[in-house]
């Protein structure tokens, strides 16, 4: 019997009695890829096909355990809240940068954030219109909910803050090197000629902080799961 057939039969037994939902189909494909990769690794280590197959399936959790990592949330309210948060963050960033319009670079940044706010706002309105009434009219729980894989989201909630901090520090380091590198290298004092140049420098170092919108949105996505969580038995 071909290995692909054995994997398919094992998955069919594993998912016997479960609903044929999109989430289960995606999970099934994820397990299939995992099994295939494990078997190939074991075969490369010198195991026979039978040993590789039996060893691989022993490391695959049951469907109930795997699905336990997921939480169902009300789809429309959850994504509506995320769109609202993204719009709020982009508007705040746009408002904060309005005083920067006295400089050319500041005006360009403020205009860019205005465009971002308009795009996010348009996306929010489009989402509301396209999902009007869906929360009440959808016929099944699977259609009304979105499944969130909590361990993965929690991991990314933490990771995105570290990535953001690294991104900001890298930009700050670049700015410092470009503006003060030669002074530091030749041991010359760093001089700021007037309040305008000081403002330019402060803005250059403050702009990367606006990217905090990204980790804030990811953090928001994680925090509101409990608010819109629903039971699969509803």
What would you say this structure looks like, in words?
By secondary structure, the chain is mainly α. The chain has 2 domains: 3-68, no CATH class; 71-230, no CATH class. It is 73% helix and 5% strand. The chain has 12 helices and 3 strands. It has helices spanning 3-14, 22-44, 49-58, 63-67, 75-96, 104-130, 134-137, 141-144, 150-185, 194-206, 213-223, 225-228, and strands at 70-74, 145-149, 229-230. It has a 3-stranded antiparallel sheet. Helix 5 (75-96) runs antiparallel to helix 6, helix 5 packs antiparallel against helix 11 and helix 9 (150-185) packs antiparallel against helix 11 (213-223). It is flat, with a radius of gyration of 26 Å. It starts with a helix and ends with a strand. 14% of the residues are buried. Residues 137-142 have low confidence and may be disordered.
Care to give the gist of this entry?
It is built from twelve helices and three strands. The protein is mostly helical and 234 residues long. It folds into two domains: 66 residues, no CATH class; 160 residues, no CATH class.
């Amino acid at each position: 019997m071909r290995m692909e057939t054995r994997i398919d039969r094992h998955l069919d037994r594993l998912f016997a009695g479960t609903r044929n939902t999109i989430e289960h189909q995606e999970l099934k494909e994820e397990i299939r890829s995992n099994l295939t990769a494990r078997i190939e690794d074991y075969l490369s280590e010198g195991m026979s096909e039978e040993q590789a197959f039996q060893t691989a399936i022993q490391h695959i959790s049951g469907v109930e355990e795997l699905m336990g990592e997921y939480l169902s949330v009300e789809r429309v309210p959850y994504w509506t809240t995320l769109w609202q948060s993204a719009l709020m963050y982009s508007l705040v960033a746009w408002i904060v940068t309005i005083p920067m319009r006295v400089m050319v670079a500041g005006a360009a940044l403020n205009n860019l954030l205005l465009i971002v706010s308009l795009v996010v706002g348009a996306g929010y309105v489009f989402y509301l219109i396209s999902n009007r009434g869906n929360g009440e009219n959808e016929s099944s729980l699977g259609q009304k909910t979105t499944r969130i894989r909590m361990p993965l989201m929690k991991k990314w909630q933490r990771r995105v803050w570290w990535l953001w901090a690294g991104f900001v520090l890298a930009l700050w380091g670049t700015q410092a090197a470009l503006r003060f590198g030669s002074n530091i290298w030749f041991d010359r004092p760093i001089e700021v000629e007037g309040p305008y140049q000081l403002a330019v420098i402060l803005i250059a170092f403050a702009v990367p902080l606006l990217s905090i919108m990204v980790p804030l949105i990811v953090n928001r996505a994680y925090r509101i799961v409990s608010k819109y969580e629903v039971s699969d038995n509803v």
